[in-house]
Amino acid sequence: MFDFDELDELLPVNDDFDESVCQIRKLVGFDCQIMYPSCNTPTTLAVVFFHGSGQPWKVEQERLFTSERIQQLVAAGVCVVLPASPLKDKGIHFWYNSDSAQIAELLLQAKQLDQTSLRVGDISKSRQNDVSPKAAGSVSAVTASGLPRLPSAGQSFAVSPLDAFKDGEPALMDVTRPMVLELIAAVEESLGLPCGRVVLGGFSQGAAVAMDCALHLLPKVPCAVGFFSGSLMCRQRWRSQFASAGAACRDSWRQLPMLQGHGNADWAVGVNGGRWLHTFCKDELGMQHLEYVEFLGGHTVPPELADKFLELTVTAACHPDATRQYLTSKLLMMS
């Protein structure tokens, strides 16, 4: 979730991206690279893919949308839309802003809490008769700096550091959210496609934005989603969005095909973030057609995972009336 451009994995650059098939267009304030099917091929599906923080389109072109994959997509009637975030600082584009020092302290406190929980529990029991009713119970969730603090003997967290990390909404997300929803509406209108014919995906920060967007599109549900090196965030808000949707919408969401991948040595977005996101989608949202791929590597998208996303998308494009169960069965066949 909290990635920085200088942390991009240093892998060989793929230079085979064919810019001749790409058009640069402005859509509701976003500079977008758009790859359209040929005039003889009807557009049956759109893929909107959000980049990570840093240089727009860099990872997408090198790891996912290579010339060979683009040719397969457009031949299948898929329009690929790669928006660049309008938020930027000194050439670095980003979707939201995070305090890396605060995040590190939260995770450190979570680790310390885990290591001392038994010791604190033992002290609490031994001093149970010495603790006044006012002193016992939970402590304030945060310090003056806004971070949770470790409890004293006989006290416990009102909100654990780990829960604070998962529930936190980074700065500027409230700015990005309405712009992204407006972008999806513009894609639907310009291509004449309903939300159910749109695949949402993203890498790193873009994965979190895509997930946030998908939940805020409810009661509309996209065709499929693909998240790479993304982390759980905004958990309370996402819970609320899902709970407020009608029963039929929640049932439809649970059938949504989801492909997720994360490197086990990702130092920009720790692999635990991806695991938390997978658990949230499976256990709390009840998603029934999802695949989580944890690969050997860092902050990247390996070719095998990119091919899975390609196959899922092409299948959806070639079978516009296919059920989500069919799409998911195709996805699992590639495992």
From TrEMBL:
Keyword Metal-binding among UniProt keywords: no
Span of domain Phospholipase/carboxylesterase/thioesterase: 178-292
Keyword entries, A-Z: Hydrolase
Annotated protein name in UniProt: Phospholipase/carboxylesterase/thioesterase domain-containing protein
Pfam families in UniProt: Abhydrolase_2
Species per Swiss-Prot/TrEMBL record: Polarella glacialis (Dinoflagellate)
Key word Cytoplasm present: no
Similarity section: Belongs to the AB hydrolase superfamily. AB hydrolase 2 family.
A single GO molecular function term of this UniProt record: hydrolase activity
